[in-house]
Design goal:
Helices cover 61% and strands 0% of the residues. It is mainly α. The longest helix has 37 residues.
Amino acid sequence: KPLSSYPISFELLEYFATMVFCCFSSKPLSSYEISKGKYGAAFSSVYDNQDKFDISMCQAPCREPCCLMGTMLCFCPVQVYMRHKALNHVTPGSGWSNYKCCQGYFGGCCCLQPGNMGEQMCPSCCMCAEAAICPGPATSATSNVVREAYQLGLDEDDVRLIRCSNCLFYFSCLLSCVASMTECEGDDALARVVDIVSDVTFCCVSGCMTAQVHHEMNLRDSSVYPKRELMDR
């Protein structure tokens, strides 16, 4: 049966996605979680820092609602703008000169390595491609530029995000394996539901993370916080 034939409303999926995110432990990441997976490794240099973003991701919808909605409606243009803003916030007047794919936080694949993909020839076009092809790492990389510049650690929402992302990834792989080995229509429907929950969670988290970074940069620009140079990766 098609997924539309099942009595599942968008509101129910949105509520379930929120519960999935919030049910994960907010305890500090273990060394195993930091060492395994690209997302955990990307936070390895800052996860033990005591300073945090001024607002958490759960506070972002109320504190920066326009940025949140703009990100969810125009994801790629917003990510291009935010990366340029973050790079020039940390190193004023640098333009795109410090840009590389995902800022080197998430490694590469075979011959496709950050810094060797033509970024210097056409950085804005490369950033557009990054936002379209790798939306999750693109959002996290911009956050990490600001996080690393000011040595900001992980708050409870960040920890839940990493654990939720790991869970959804492994659960999706498990469902794909089960669906490929069986002919049960229920497996396909369940896999589609998980995909939708994953998409809703991603949209919400990406919007909140972008709004969090936007708020932090505006706060730093309007205060006497010391600026730090962008760390070369």
